[in-house]
Fold these 4 entries.
Entry 1:
Amino acid sequence: MLFVGKLCINEQSKEMEPCVRPLFTICSIGQKKIVSAEIPGVEVFHRPVFYKGMGRTKGSFVRVGDSDEPMSEYEVYSYEAFRRHIRDDARAITEAPLDTLNKADVENYVRLCKRERKNLSENVSSEEILELMGVIHSGAPTVAGILSFSKYPQGFLPQLCITAVRVPGNEMGDLGATGERFIDNARLTGTIPQMLEDAISFVQKNSRHKTVIDKNGKRTDTEEYPSIAVREVVLNALVHRDYSVYSESTPVRIEMYDNRLQVINSGGLYGKTTLSNLGKIRPDTRNAVLANILEILKITENRYSGIPTIQKEMQEAGLPPAEFSVRHGEFYATLYNSANQPEYSGKPADILAFCSVPRSRAELQGFTGMSQFYTMSHIVQPLLESGALKLTLPEKPKSSKQRYVKG
């Protein structure tokens, strides 16, 4: 019976493209045998795996909860674009004339190219530079060229903009005291550098600012969200969003709530990048042409430092780490403010009594019942600074063997 079952599964596997190879495991529980068939995921270059009888578009499925849902045409295309190295940001917008590009900005860009890339200035003309760098293609501006240099990019790509709202609550649909749905609502247009600056201004205008005066009368203003972190999440959305025809009708969205800031862009993670390795490895670049242009313009470093910078800024501000997720083909970056953090109800004396013997970070977290980030930054760190707690390995403060003991 087991042999017949395996044979049937193997025959079904051959109906998939590429062919999948199940790994069978058999174990015994009491008088019964349990058979499992594990199908390892294929490399991203070979995705999506589809049922040959229905073809790639209709025979590709994605797991959603407990059901298998057909992949959208865009989801199938996103794998195809990676496999075939389709550069959607280098797509020519043939209806846009060349004079839609701001002449002074383009000339400045060419000068920067010649200064930054010496071999360009020595070997090619200004017109060839624009073609080689992807600003124009076959005599027409590209998506990247329009978004970087057009006098008004949204004249040709109307939805490649940013919509920004400040919601009076923690969920979309919450209403304010007078029934208003939004405290502020804006559509931000222009080139990517212009939209980036306008987005930062929108967040600052709608953020709460805290002023603290210490015992010496020194005043310190604290931002609700670190401005550098805000800049990076917005820039990441503009640079790494999907610019294919499937999503060019979808703007980047900034949604500000009482407890968080969310920046959402079309297109999930690209290529081999996963949520678990995001910011830890060199990612595949969806829009290499656009990223290269913005690097020359000094808008982005193009060195994959965005995610680490965001997390560093949030940590230094005493805020929870940024969270990243992918939902329905969209990428979400979420920054939480201090309103989202529960307060610790215990007393410093409780921590000191607990640390009468050396304690690890995990033990301290378990004792407080808070997150490790909150425990260490809001509870333990002040006690270290005051000398009430001491490190057992002061020369190695980040060691996994570090312990904390009453001073």
Note: The longest strand covers residues 23-29.
Entry 2:
Amino acid sequence: MPVMHDPVVTLEDVRVRKISLSALDLDVMIRVENPNLIGITLRQLPFTVMCSSGNRDQEIASGNTGRIQIPARGSTVLRIPVTSRNAAILAALATFVTRGSVQVTIKGTATIDALLFGWSIPFTKTLPVTMAQVADAVAGKEPLK
């Protein structure tokens, strides 16, 4: 039986899709790389989007990929749209206005199935969201790829 290696789960990007006073729409891009000789199934990848405002992180959104097949020695980039409609946006916007950018952190756990085995891989990544990204989203421009 071949030795199974952990897939590599990385946050590729967080893009502001749309912004308003009551909602923030984000596209979260997560790459799952499978170094194994056999395909695997990503059973689920629940995650939380947090925004740093002041001294603490506040949850602004959450999502899940659902079930995805990852080919042997292949990788897949998952684009997961998430929308936040809660009060934490106001604190994030205040931080954003005063600093010109805000740190967005994604935390989650990938649950993997392969053959008769299943296991979980936690991940965390922080990326900045800048004034230019928000200006492009407000103007309706397509994010840079």
Note: Residues 8-49+63-85+106-126 form a domain with the Immunoglobulin-like fold (CATH 2.60.40).
Entry 3:
Amino acid sequence: MMLLVVPVLAMLFGFVLGSRAAERIALLTLPLGLALAVAVAALVLDQGTPLSYDIGGWASPLGVALRVDGLSAVLLLTTALVITGVGLYARADFATPADVDEARTPLAFWTLLLGLWAALNAVFIGQDLFNLYVAIELLTFTAVPLVCLKGSAETLQAALRYLLFALLGSVLYLLGAALLYGAYGTLDIGQLAAAMRGSGLAAAEPAVEPAAIAAVVLMTAGLLAKTALVPLHLWLPPAHAGAPAAASAILSALVVKGSFYLIFRLWIDLMPVVYTQQIAQGLATLGAAAILLGGIMAIRQARLKMLIAYSTLAQLGYLFLIFPLLVSPVLVPTLADGSTPAAWTGGVLQLVSHAFAKASMFMGAGLIAIALGHDRIADLGGLSRLLPITLVAFALSGLSLMGLPPSGGFAAKWLLLRAAIETGQWWWTLVILFGGVLTGTYLYRVLAAASFSESDADLAAGPASRRQSEGVSEPLPKLATGASAELASAPPPEPASEVSPERASVQSPRSSSQLPGQTGQVQSAQRQPRLQRPVARSRELIVLALALISIALGLVPLTSFEILQIGRGGEAMAMLEPLAEPAGLSAFELPASGVTPVPSATGFLASVMEPLPGVAGSLPSAPESLPTVAGPSTSSVAPLPSAVGAQSSAMGSLP
């Protein structure tokens, strides 16, 4: 309950007391909210059961029920960490100037930040579909204004498009909830699940009521619009790229995950058997389209923030691959030895590691825009000397997005790969691998431009560089391509010290008239702003810290993720039982604990050397030198080559 009360009260007090007080209250709320999230997660892990609370003592359906299971606890903690980092980062951008009593933009940002935090917490702990509707609406109406804080025509247009898609999703969701209430007389997720099973929805050939089918279709479509899954993604790139860097980080890391979480709950907690395996394949197909389209579009972008926005579109696609992998009729050894399905752990790891990596990337892009006065990828030369910490953080976040060891993204994608092969759905492995290649391609563009660009050498020292920084125009050679002509016709960028972080991140080249008396000659747009460091080192360290968390998730032993099974066993997962029976598997119910027998994400480096198990086989055991979970073991690890073996043994011994 305090997870909702604290940010709401802080938001109200800040709004009433003004911008300066709102900033102070928000900064005081950050550690308090983080401490509450840590305490809740620790309590759930210690008790081994979900936490439930009925507001006012009224049980559902008369009252409002709140529930925190293992997944909710992880998402609450992730939200608190990301918002704490964003809040500390945003102090320099949204501080009230000392010479004014009140500032509208800082007041709006800090109150919206706190309201968004409360909305996300409500989404993650809500148990009633109508209350979840209220929470998702609060999330929308706090996220949309963050897009247009700058007030420019471009950001207003992006915010309006976002709002239209979000409202469409809200209407569809509410219609679906109304149909479910009319059919079953309750909107509590637990009671709805019990009612559906009682009416035969959990049978091998379920007798699904038409109203329930229509409700599921409407609610899923509405939430897909809010999640920006292809083809309902048109609002995401301009909204995430046009918002201030701090707002972009929250939108990409957290906001789109809220609606995805509700889709997941509808499928797993409420109606995992209403839709067949073919429908799950359809959702994953849309996810695969997002991976490919987002990656290709990111490669084509000329602006850094737009590239990161399309990267978000691609990374969201991986989350939808878990549906066919988790509800597959071939759940193989994880059912026999009591282990956690690989797709389950991999999907959550993908969600969490992407949140930290993408928040770090967007905030790093904001610092780059301040330092260089623009975010044009082709003109990032000199960045490796100007902002080395930021560039390192960007590279580390990129490692996680690509899925390279030892990052959390590697652990997530490896688990998804194993799940795809173990369940016989090999085609998803091609999507995952090709998506990683696309990710590496567009990230290499950024790192290469920042580290090896010709403009980097031009900035070292020289008459041309000095003349450019002083605003002296020089004739250009004949331009060969239309793209070069567009660059050549652009005016010189403003000095970094004069460009706000919001404006700098969305600057676009404009054509300018030719110089008098010089027909065919144009002003040079290749002039670089005078490089300086107008950003605090502390802001770079915040960006680096979030990137390191994304990497560190790959070093956490998988036994630590047993918290994800709390509240996921029992009735909800038992509803998957009919899906396993057609394949000849015995009925099952996932326990409250148990993990895949690999001691840590880095231990995957050893298991890579083993042959993958067959569909009806069992998972290979871990190396003898590493601790293993009790259970059947039919294979051992072959001796590794010296270099790989040394790395694997060193990493596998990590706690």
Note: Confidence is low (pLDDT under 50) at residues 200-207, 332-338, 454-529, 570-655.
Entry 4:
Amino acid sequence: MRGEASVASAPPHKASVTAGGIAGSARRIAVVAGLTFREAWQRKMIIAAVVMSAGYLALYGLALHFASRDLAVSGHAATPAFMENVMAAQLLYVGLFPASLIVGLTAVFASVAAISSELDTGLLHGVLVRPIRRTELLVGKTLGIGLMLALHNLAFMSALIGLALWLIEAPVANVPTALALLTLAPLALLGLAMLGTTRLPTLANGVLCAAAYGISFVGGFIEQIGSAIRNETMVNLGIISSLLLPADAMYRKAIEYLLPGGLLLLGGGGGSILTPAESPSAWMVIYAAAYPVILIAIGARLFAKRDL
């Protein structure tokens, strides 16, 4: 009788949430994820990402077209095939770096206002009176945006690598592994942005994520320089920045799989801070895969305690 009374006195929406169990929670998360993905399409977010990526691919493809003609001419001049591979690897590497920045910024802009903007407009208050937990809402939105970012990254990077293969016969290897690692970078940014959007205003969260992304790359550069001059302190600073946000670490790990390191070094990249001379460990990859999950778990806890 006591148990029945407690159930009867519970709010209707809370009782229905509890009654749904894991299956009901999964259904609600899937619904929110689908609605979030559809919202990204309706707000032209996906279209904007596609247009921006297509513009970059057109510019990069044009550059590769002219570069391929020069490579062909140098080939007739008895340039060793190995040196052609070196130049092709360098050209692909130069194209991948700005592309990774585009993907990262897309992740920030797509997720930085996921919760905070709806709180500011009052839209979220109407959603949360329905039979749905705050955690389910946060996880669903994360999955919807994450799906969009993963598809965009895979299509964009595959097209870029395909252009390099077609026009300059770039010497690539382990493409699926490299693509998977490149996808972890925007997902790490997504986790950070979704954590921030549960507590911070949209503008503050955007500044935080953009700054963290910049620090991640600067830390990677510091680690490369420290590795080159055998400065352990600089290397440790780079590792710390990767722990704060492993986006750059995953980019460097992907390059290790995609392009033979010797070709980059012989092409003159050995003295460049952009060249991944020091590769992140397998433990860093595991950490990067767990990173968004950890941040979303923290964000869910903070969001559940927030007074709306």
Note: The mean pLDDT is 83.
